[in-house]
Design a protein that fits this description.
Chain A: Keywords: Cell membrane, Membrane, Transmembrane, Transmembrane helix, Transport. The complex is a heterodimer of chains A (278) and B (301). Chain A has 278 residues and is mainly α. Chain A is 78% helix and 0% strand. In chain B, a hairpin with a 2-residue loop joins strand 1 and strand 2. The chains are: A mainly alpha (278), B mainly alpha (301).
């Protein structure tokens, strides 16, 4: 039968899409080493030499380094808060039935159904009235808050699947509620925590609409996160004609995430897939 | 017993406080603000009832933006899911066929890893990258067109109202397909191989097996994909704002961008909140509609 031609044809189609996916990224990396003149004359030419000075110009003069640091600070803080508060709330909701626990659960989970745009205007004023507009702590708290619904939803389900026998044994041994959570349940929930942690990391690291709304006002440019700084760079460099600097900035923003993904691709894929199937 | 109550309170309250302050209260306030003429600068405002919504109904810019979201809502899920199913079936059943059934292609793992790249990149990076790719002189796309002698097709993609929207749609499809290839091919792994063997023995073509066997058995996953892509289509904000900023002459505007500009460029916070409320009901309606339309008897194995 025609069994032999099918695999070849499959590969042909699959390779075309693989190229469509990777070529733009490779193009950005290559362009980051070209001179502006090379970019202007032929978009498909290879760089004549590796111009790392483009990278240092993007890192220093275009403040990509500063934005990178800001992103790292905000996401580190927000991820810690999300995972800690999320796991604590989820644990109580999963294993300690109290009066009204259903209401609290649906309050948390209901947050997943609302488009973030609905909240933008009031959120701007809530943050402003707290004096947190254009500050890293403000953005950190907001990221953490908007990550809670999915975290609570996912981890509540996860804590419910853990066997009760271990918890009972620990309690017989005189383990208190706090000790039980931090010493027994959290270690047991590791796979779930890793999955939801990866999902939250990408959600927070790649956030766009929240920073552009909350990081405005006087002096906020110094506090911009990477996503925001990069788009501002794209607008500004267009006027100045520093194309190579823009590509270098893009590459700097892109490579760590791609490398991290290549290292942990299995965990990342299953973490994100779990995020979709809610 | 008191210890237990204290424990529950200590564990719930930090998360609840954070959530109530930054998520619940803004959502609740949005509905309230949508009934005012608040312009943000002055502390005083008047309740004007449904006036903002009356204005919304007569707002040509809003309808123009909504029309684009509507187009995305139809085209994005259809294109993404079809491409996703196509490539996923190539990966999981596109290999050779022999007596034990059909196989996946070799290097399936490689494709799954590579296809996922856009999913881990931020919308900001994707937006800026594609904006540069569409650039008239320095862009990769026109560079290719000129390279193969199609100079006439090398137009200013984002500067032309006829093309801007389709450029945005292309980017949205590009950035979403890979994820659904991975998701669908994972779902297809759980389909028993001998089903395909039996079908091929009966003389079914590959296309028939895709339509008659694969699709019904991954229907649940398709349904989830549909709802999620619909949410992406109702949003669309980041990519549009970065690539075209809604232009030229509002030819690629979307509702989220209308809201953002109405609030943070024009300072009409009351009216912007009304747009937000409209978006919320749109999301609800679409979710309910899709769940209804795509409901089908589940195939049990």
């Amino acid at each position: 039968m025609k069994g032999r031609s099918v695999p070849a044809l499959s590969h042909l189609f699959l390779i075309v899409w693989a190229l469509l996916t990777t070529l733009p990224l490779v193009w950005a990396v290559l362009s980051s080493f070209k001179s502006d003149n090379e970019i202007l004359t032929d978009p498909w030419s290879l760089p004549s030499r590796l111009r790392w000075e483009n990278w240092s110009r993007a890192w220093n003069d275009a403040h990509i380094g500063q934005y990178f640091l800001n992103s790292a600070i905000v996401v580190t803080g927000a991820l810690t808060l999300t995972m800690l508060f999320g796991a604590m709330a989820a644990y109580v909701l999963a294993r300690y039935p109290f009066r009204g626990h259903r209401v609290v659960y649906y309050l948390f989970v209901g947050g997943m159904m609302f488009p973030v745009f609905l909240a933008l205007v009031p959120l701007f004023f809530v943050v402003r009235n707290l004096g947190l507009l254009g500050t890293l702590p403000g953005l950190t708290l907001v990221y953490a808050a908007y990550s809670l619904p999915f975290t609570v939803f996912f981890l509540t389900a996860f804590f419910r699947t853990l066997p009760t026998s271990v918890a009972e044994a620990a309690q017989v041994d005189g383990c208190g509620h706090f000790g039980l959570f931090f010493r027994v349940m959290l270690p047991m929930a590791r796979p779930g925590l890793v999955g939801v942690g990866i999902f939250n990391f990408l959600f927070q690291w790649n956030q766009y609409v929240l920073p552009i709304v909350l990081m405005q006002g006087e002096g906020a440019e110094r506090k911009w996160v990477l996503a925001q700084g990069l788009t501002a760079l794209a607008v500004n460099e267009g006027y100045r004609g520093d194309f190579s600097g823009l590509f270098a900035g893009m590459t700097i923003a892109m490579l760590p995430v791609i490398l991290g993904y290549l290292l942990f691709h299995r965990q990342v894929q299953s973490g994100l897939a779990a995020g979709q199937l809610r | 017993m008191r210890g237990k109550r204290l424990f529950i309170a200590v564990f719930l309250i930090p998360g609840l406080l954070l959530y109530a302050l930054f998520v619940v209260s803004p959502y609740a306030q949005a509905f309230q603000i949508s009934g005012t003429d608040w312009s943000g600068l002055s502390p005083s405002y008047e309740f004007i009832g449904l006036e903002n919504f009356r204005r919304l109904v007569g707002d040509g810019y809003f309808w123009n933006a909504l029309r684009h979201n509507g187009l995305l809502l139809v085209l994005l899920p259809v294109a993404t899911i079809l491409l996703g199913l196509f490539f996923a079936s190539m990966i999981s059943v596109g290999g050779r066929a022999d007596r034990v059934g059909v196989h996946g292609v070799r290097g399936a793992g490689f494709y799954r890893v590579v296809y996922f790249f856009p999913q881990v990149l931020s919308v900001a990076i994707i937006g800026v990258l594609w904006k540069e790719m569409y650039a008239p002189h320095t862009g990769m796309i026109n560079g290719l067109l000129r390279g193969v002698g199609l100079d006439g097709l090398a137009v200013a993609w984002l500067g032309d109202p006829r093309f801007a929207f389709w450029c945005v749609l292309t980017v949205l499809i590009w950035m979403n397909v890979g994820f659904y290839v991975v998701l669908f091919s994972a779902a297809m792994q759980s389909i028993p191989r001998d089903l395909y063997e039996a079908a091929l023995l009966d003389g079914a073509t590959r296309l028939t097996t895709l339509v008659r066997i694969t699709v019904p058995l991954v229907w649940d996953t398709i349904q989830v994909a549909w709802v999620y892509l619909a949410i992406v289509a109702i949003d669309g904000f980041a990519i549009v704002q970065i690539i075209t900023d809604g232009g030229p002459s509002s030819s690629s505007d979307v509702v989220g961008l209308r809201l953002y500009k109405t609030a943070f460029a024009d300072g009409q916070f009351g009216y912007a909140s009304a747009i937000g409320v409209a978006m919320f009901f749109l999301t609800l309606t679409v979710a309910a509609m899709f769940l209804r339309v795509t409901r089908r008897d589940r195939v049990e194995l």
